[in-house]
């Protein structure tokens, strides 16, 4: 009798699971269409489908004396205009050094500007960074264990449009 009851309970659970799966599949299939044969929200729309959807959502025209010209379609490409903080003639590149790396702008006038910097493993960059724009930018890479290795102060210059990092004598009076 017990085996028979276990079989009935198992069959009931299988039936419930199957019904739940079928209901979920039916809901997904029903959501696959907007009722008008159009594309579903789960699929990307092509340009023609976007135009149809926009046309269907436009309000009916009002009685205006002057028609409004259509707006131009959006451009698929991004603007290549540089950010306001960097002149169009600035070339960005990365310079690597023992304590990390920095993204640098070498400008047409020969100046340098540190855009960003990142320490290497086991180092951190000191807070008193001189980022420029100037003839020389400065930063200091400090090892995590200050007792074993000396700090590494760097001057970064642009030479022929290429950034160069050079360790300079430490002038801090710690």
Order of helix and strand elements from N to C terminus: HHEEEEEEE
Q: Based on the structure, what is the oligomeric state of the protein chains?
A: single chain
Annotation, overall tally of beta strands: 7
Q: Poorly predicted ranges (pLDDT <50, ≥5 residues)?
A: 32-42, 74-84
Largest sheet: 4 strands, antiparallel
Tell me roughly what share of residues is in helical segments: 10-25%
Neighbour order of strands in the largest sheet: 4-5-6-7
Q: Total helix count?
A: 2
3D architecture notes:
The chain has 174 residues and is of the alpha+beta class. Helix content is 24%, strand content 26%. It contains two helices and seven strands. It is elongated and about 90 Å long. It starts with a helix and ends in a 7-residue tail after the last strand.
């Amino acid at each position: 009798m017990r085996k028979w009851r276990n079989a009935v309970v198992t069959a009931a659970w299988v039936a419930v699971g199957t019904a739940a799966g079928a209901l979920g599949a039916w809901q997904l299939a029903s959501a696959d269409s907007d009722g008008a044969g159009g594309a579903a929200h789960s699929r990307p729309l092509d340009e023609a489908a976007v135009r149809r959807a926009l046309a269907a959502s436009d309000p009916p025209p009002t009685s205006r004396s002057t028609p409004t010209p259509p707006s131009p379609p959006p451009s698929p490409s991004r603007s290549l205009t540089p950010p306001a903080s960097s002149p169009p003639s600035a070339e960005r590149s990365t310079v690597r050094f023992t304590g990390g790396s920095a993204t640098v702008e070498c400008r047409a006038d020969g100046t340098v500007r540190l855009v960003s910097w990142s320490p290497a493993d086991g180092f951190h960059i000191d807070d008193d960074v001189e980022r420029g724009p100037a003839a020389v930018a400065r930063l200091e890479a400090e090892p995590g264990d200050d007792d074993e290795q000396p700090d590494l102060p760097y001057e970064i210059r642009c030479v022929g449009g290429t950034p160069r990092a050079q360790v300079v004598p430490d002038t801090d009076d710690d």
